[in-house]
Design a protein that fits this description.
- The protein has helices spanning 5-10, 12-18, 81-96, 102-118, 127-143, 162-178, 193-196, 201-219, 229-232, 236-242, 248-257, 269-272, 275-293, 308-322, 336-345, 361-364, 368-371, 419-431; strands at residues 62-72, 153-158, 183-188, 328-334, 377-385, 395-400, 403-404, 417-418.
- By secondary structure, the protein is of the alpha/beta class.
- It has 2 domains: 32-77 and 124-226 and 275-431, Phosphoglycerate mutase-like (Rossmann fold, 3-Layer(aba) Sandwich), CATH 3.40.50; 80-122 and 228-273, no CATH class.
- Strands 1, 2, 3, 4, 5, 6, 7 and 8 form an 8-stranded mixed beta sheet that branches.
């Protein structure tokens, strides 16, 4: 996917909105979250138009030689076709009856435009999603040029989903432009899906049960009132008699919040919805994601182990790289449903803290959009003394969305941890797991 100069310039209308990113280490208070952040997993990658925080210097005598990455695909079109079609149908009904407010007409114009552009592109990568991975790939080369030296081996894998494959293509093309001497291999196969997008049927049943019971009780505290409709439609009687409102508020929220997934699109979210309405949508989504990944007695502390195969694959891939004098990288492209529990399983930052009440997520700063915005990524950067191939000498640091993180145990220095100790900790953890 190639972006024109004009298209990139048009994206400046979203630049300020996308770049008000808070570090996962210091989440904003809930009442300070911007409307694009309250989009939860639809939040655009916060470092599309600005650089992430500067990285700590490499320890003296060491150099980076290997990278393991798992990344979410970039920004995408919505998955449910009904979000577009049913929402458009309701507003067009109001238009035919001449009851749209000026904001309603503006909202209809946007939804009609985006629905027309979406035809045949459901679930696919957007222009913004392509740009996100282009920028991530370029920064990876800039930050770790030693890993992408001529002759280095880079193996890229994606799930079989087209948006993940295109995210891979955009990132590796960006790498190749800056490091043309890299030996690059790519693949997207069912053979790798057992760790790239593992279907943990036992764990899913546990989580589905919680969503049908405890989560449903929680979300009833934050009902969709439909109050936003009076900002779009001037006739209360028409809203009551003619608008099929069930599920419409969430569909409207998804369409408008996902405007940030497209370059140059207008931002109507915080005009159509109040801050409290957006917070309620976020609370429901955030709690649902916590069930899928968080540490809680609700799921017997087992939710993040859905990514035990992925973490084991990362460890085994790193083991292979550590015995070679060559530099290399293994890049994986998948989904938010893998990045989020992997973050918790690896105990990155403070996301593996135990939280047993949905009401406590806000105070604890457990915000899904800080972990899995579009193009979310975990990068593990491995370092060794120059000339050494002794695995015991290896240090590692982990970047979550290109921010340095804390990990289990004590660091050797700064964000750098002894890989041998960390590796054994992770292996002991996943080997001991059982349902």
């Amino acid at each position: 996917m190639i972006l024109s100069h004009r298209a990139i310039l048009a994206a400046a209308t979203l630049c300020c909105m996308l770049n008000t990113a808070a570090s996962p280490l210091t989440p904003k208070p809930i009442d300070q979250l911007e409307s694009h952040e309250l989009a939860a997993q639809y939040r655009a990658y916060p470092y599309t138009y600005q650089a992430p925080p500067a990285l700590t210097d490499t320890p003296d005598g060491y150099e980076p030689f290997h990278i393991e990455q798992y990344a979410r695909h970039g920004s995408r079109w919505l998955i449910d076709q009904k979000d577009y079609d049913l929402t458009l149908a309701q507003l067009e009904k109001a238009e035919r009856n001449n009851v749209l407010t000026p904001l309603g007409k503006e909202t209809l114009a946007y939804i009609r435009d985006i629905t027309g552009k979406e035809k045949g592109r459901r679930e696919e990568l957007t222009d913004m999603g392509a740009l996100q991975h282009q920028r991530i790939g370029a920064r990876m080369v800039k930050n770790f040029p030693e890993v992408f030296a001529p002759g280095s081996n880079v193996d890229a894998k994606a799930t079989i989903v087209i948006r993940c494959i295109l995210s891979m293509v955009n990132e590796i093309n960006s790498i190749n432009k800056l490091a043309p001497g890299v030996n690059m291999t790519t693949d997207a196969s069912y053979a790798d899906m057992y760790y790239m997008n593992f279907d943990d049927t036992i764990g899913s049943k546990i989580k589905d049960s919680i969503k049908k019971n405890e989560l449903r009780t929680f979300t009833k505290k934050y009902p969709e009132t439909g109050a936003y409709l009076k900002r779009l439609i001037s006739s209360k009687k028409f809203i009551k008699d003619s608008i099929e409102s069930k599920g419409l508020e969430r569909r409207m929220w998804r369409i408008l919040s996902n405007a940030q997934s497209h370059i140059g699109m207008p931002w109507l979210t915080d005009r159509v919805f109040t801050k409290e309405e957006l917070l309620n949508q976020w609370r429901r989504s955030n709690a649902s994601w916590f069930i899928d990944a968080g540490i809680s007695t609700l799921t017997d502390h087992k939710a993040p182990f859905s990514q035990r195969n992925l973490l084991r694959n990362i460890i085994e891939s790193a083991d292979t790289a550590l015995t070679s004098p060559k530099v290399s990288a293994n890049l994986r492209f998948g989904h938010d449903g893998m990045v989020l529990p992997l973050t918790v399983l690896m105990e990155i930052n403070d996301y593996a803290k135990e939280i047993n009440r949905f009401e406590d997520l806000e105070n604890e700063g457990w915000y899904c959009q800080d972990i899995v915005p579009m193009a979310a990524n975990i990068q593990m950067i491995f370092y060794r003394p120059k000339g050494s191939v002794n695995p015991d000498d290896v240090l590692v640091k982990v970047l979550l969305n290109e921010n340095e993180t804390t990990l289990p145990g004590e660091p050797v220095t700064g964000p750098y941890y002894n890989w041998r100790k960390l590796r054994q900790y992770y292996l002991d953890k996943i080997n001991a797991f059982k349902y």
